[in-house]
C-alpha cells in the first residue's frame, strides 16, 4: 500500500463555527470513520470538538 492511501491528510474543522482548521494525518485502519478530536480553538479561546471534513 502506498503511503498516501494508508495515512491520508485530513482537515479538522472547528464545531464552534469559527472556521479554524487543523491539518493532520490519520490511520485509515484504526479510524475508518470520520475523526473527532477535542483541540484548542484560538479564535473561540477554548477547547472544542474538531470534526474531519472531506
What do these coordinates show?
The chain is mostly beta strands. The protein has one domain: Rubrerythrin, domain 2, CATH 2.20.28.120. The chain is built from one helix and four strands; from the N terminus they run H-E-E-E-E. It has one helix spanning 3-6, and strands spanning 9-14, 21-25, 36-41, 46-53. The protein has a four-stranded antiparallel beta sheet with strand order 2-1-4-3, with no helix packed on it. Strand 1 and strand 2 form a beta hairpin. The longest helix has 4 residues, at 3-6. It is elongated, with a radius of gyration of 12 Å. The two termini are 21 Å apart. The mean pLDDT is 92.
Compute the gyration radius: what is it? 12 Å
* N-C termini distance: 21 Å
Instruction: Give a short account of the largest sheet.
Output: 4 strands, antiparallel
**Number of DSSP E strands:** 4
- The number of helical runs is 1
CATH architecture: Single Sheet
Q: Helicity range of the residues?
A: under 10%
Highest-level CATH class: Mainly Beta
* Total domain count: 1
Shape: elongated
**Range of strand content:** over 45%
What's the CATH topology label? Rubrerythrin, domain 2
Unreliable residue runs? none
Mean pLDDT: 92
The CATH homologous superfamily is termed: Ribosomal protein L33
The helix/strand series, from N terminus to C terminus, equals HEEEE
Q: Biggest sheet, strands in spatial order?
A: 2-1-4-3
Structural class: mainly beta
Q: How are the SSEs placed, and which strands pair?
A:
Layout: H1 3-6, E1 9-14, E2 21-25, E3 36-41, E4 46-53
